Amino acid sequence: MAIAKAERLMNLALCLMNTRRPVSKRELRTSIEAYHEGADDAFNRMFERDKDDLRELGLVIDTIESLDGEIGYLARRDRNRLPEIALDAEEAAALTLAAKVWQQARFAEAASGALQKLRAAGVPFDDAAEQTLSGGHSALEPRIPAPEPAFEPLMTAARERRAVAFDYRKSNAARPEPRQVEPWALECWRGHWYVAGWDRDRGAVRVFRLSRITGRVKVRGGGFTAPVPDHVDVRAAVASWAGEGATGTARIRLRRDSGYPLRARSVEILPVDAEWDELEIPYGHGLEAWLVEFGPDVVVLEPAELRADVIDRLRAVAKG
């Protein structure tokens, strides 16, 4: 489990840093409770993995051989001390704004605590930052709302590399379907949160909109089975399903004073009458799912296959 491993790594780091002499594997196994159980071979493999993980995290661990040939390990404090924090006024202002992004109390508390520690370390916060630290408001307050209940468990699962299961209702489906997903990353795009990851049932990369997840997100045992890409571009994946990568265009009729996201992406807008406008918009895979969300405010004129797909989706929703 991720928490158990983090606790084991922390205990190992503390043992290596709080001693003035090299500590052998035998002594470490005796001192750290997580190493007590299991055979020697299992302990040796676990210890080597933990040691490599700490080094990857940046801890400098010296390997020292004693006069009698015993190998010991030591993490000297002078070699593992972080440099002093030095931020200019602009960098401090950027951190202040970042701390104001999250609306959820859980994130706000952590962000406020971090700012308090930075101020105590001498970071030059301005008046706006002081208002942030005291719970006030500044002139510029960015917000990223995350009202979906699925947001927090998915974010935690993505951070801990754990698979999840949930029921998901597609835009053209009357009932939700069960999904098993290895979540890689979350991103907000056009006011909606999405999670990208590996769909175990379909054996392929998929993107899911959090507002379409029904019920509770359940965490599955075990780690990821598919390799995680070095860079996960959720926005690009969502855009490809919304016609952003289109090479052709479609013509739709759009009710006046509605569908502003469609108007923003349109190539051409022609007034038809007092109630309708005609738009030419980029056409690509997944555009029909997006158009369905505008309901009776959109009528597809061409191409014929897009019109048929939209009608099929609307009929499926009506039957539900």
Q: Could you provide a short overview of the structure?
A:
With 320 residues, this protein is α+β, with helices and mostly antiparallel strands.
Task: Explain what you see.
With 320 residues, the chain is an alpha+beta fold. It is 38% helix and 23% strand. It has eleven helices and twelve strands. Strands 7-6-5-4-8 form a five-stranded antiparallel β-sheet. A four-stranded antiparallel β-sheet has the order 10-11-9-12. β5 (177-189) and β6 (192-199) form a beta hairpin. The radius of gyration is 27 Å and the shape is elongated. Residues 136-140 have low confidence and may be disordered.
What brief labels describe this structure?
320 residues, elongated, alpha+beta, five-stranded antiparallel sheet
What order do the strands of the largest sheet run in, or round the barrel if closed? 7-6-5-4-8
Largest sheet entry: 5 strands, antiparallel
Oligomer: single chain
User: Portion of residues in helices?
Assistant: 25-40%
The succession of helices and strands, N to C, reads HEHHEEHHHHEEEEEHEHEEHEH
Task: Please work out how many helical segments DSSP would assign.
Answer: 11
Arithmetic mean pLDDT:
79
Q: Give start-end ranges of low-pLDDT stretches.
A: 136-140
Number of strands: 12
End-to-end gap: 40 Å
Main structural class: alpha+beta
Approximately what portion of the residues adopt beta-strand conformation?
A: 15-25%
Radius of gyration from CA coordinates: 27 Å
Indicate the overall shape. Answer: elongated
